[in-house]
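seq:
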Amino acid sequence: MRKTGWAVCGCAVMVALAVPAVAEEQQVNVYNWADYIGKTTVADFQKPTGINVVYDTYDSDAGLEAKVMASESGYDVVTTSTDFFFAPDQGGCL
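struct:
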């Protein structure tokens, strides 16, 4: 009987977590170097999670900084090279 209770509780938690995902489409916005990701990485992520990925690329650190610092970019994930960092909190980017 105790195992059944845990199973029911586990199912209830899974349903509760799934309901918001059904209610609205989930999306993650990524801004990254063009060659920093595998050819199938986005599809490999989207298929099991159901989360849509908007994947934009840039070709220079200066381009990255200009776009991110200019306005609210809307990106959830932004990557940069290891030798280039800027202060995203300057200008209210965070």
